[in-house]
Design a protein that fits this description.
The protein is 32% helix and 32% strand. By secondary structure, the protein is of the alpha+beta class. It folds into 2 domains: 104 residues, no CATH class; 112 residues, no CATH class. Helix 4 runs antiparallel to helix 5.
């Protein structure tokens, strides 16, 4: 049975549950419009486990990560939810009765990935003196310089619209967003030009940096924190 779920609804479930979701899966959701509907199907837990083991594990071995929480549910209802962006896909299992995410996994089906090291990104951020860039650089400081961060190529104006909508809504819930106006304005001016985006999830913050597609030139930085919000604001 098909269900309807938006990116925003799924993100809210994840935040309330405290589920340990792969950072790349969270990043993928960040890149999608909050109102975008996701693929969702309802199954009995035991039925879903049999189906995955019999038909999908050979070509998608990462799906085994979704099966561990299902054993105790028996024939209880679960929702299988997927979010996609290009060759990347994040999959989730949700307890349908209690609307609680139980497990998540992430897969990049692209043959190669473009990356930038933490050290190189911090060096590029030094070119900017905006509050967001300074916050981002400081937040990255504890990370190993040689650690590789994935870059995704996206349409500048499209991601500007997505992040503007997403983080204005987040601000209403108490999330602190630094540099949104400048970041989205800079990208919107580029129109359909493609840029490289880097989303870095840290312990209590998210760093977003936009780079030119063909050279390592920073187009803007965004720093987001205080995801839980202040007491009484949610």
């Amino acid at each position: 049975m098909s269900e309807v779920m938006t990116v925003e609804v799924l993100e809210g479930m994840i935040e309330r549950s405290g589920l340990n979701v792969p950072a790349d899966a969270l990043t993928l959701l960040t890149e999608l419009p909050p109102e975008q509907e996701l693929f969702v199907d309802q199954f009995e837990a035991a039925e879903f486990e049999r189906m995955v083991r019999d038909n999908y594990l050979v070509r998608s071995p990462n799906l085994v990560e979704l099966l561990a929480p299902l054993h105790d549910l028996g024939n209880g209802p679960i929702l299988f939810c997927q979010a996609e962006a290009g060759e990347r896909i994040a999959s989730f299992v949700v307890d349908a009765e209690h609307q609680v995410p139980l497990a998540a996994t992430y897969l990049d089906r692209a043959p190669t990935q473009k990356t930038i090291s933490v050290g190189a990104l911090r060096h590029l951020l030094k070119e900017l003196t905006t509050p967001a860039a300074l916050k981002a650089s400081a937040a990255l400081l504890p990370q190993a310089c040689e650690k590789d961060l994935r870059l995704s190529v996206q349409d500048a104006s499209s991601i500007a619209r997505t992040l503007w909508t997403k983080y204005n809504l987040a601000r209403e819930k108490g999330v602190v967003v630094i540099g949104l106006e400048e970041f989205t304005t800079n990208l919107a001016r580029l129109g359909s030009t493609e840029v490289r985006l880097c989303f870095v999830w840290l312990e209590d913050s998210l760093v977003t940096v936009a780079l030119e597609k063909e050279r390592d030139q920073v187009m803007g930085a965004l720093f987001v924190t205080n995801f839980i919000g202040k007491p009484g604001e949610r």
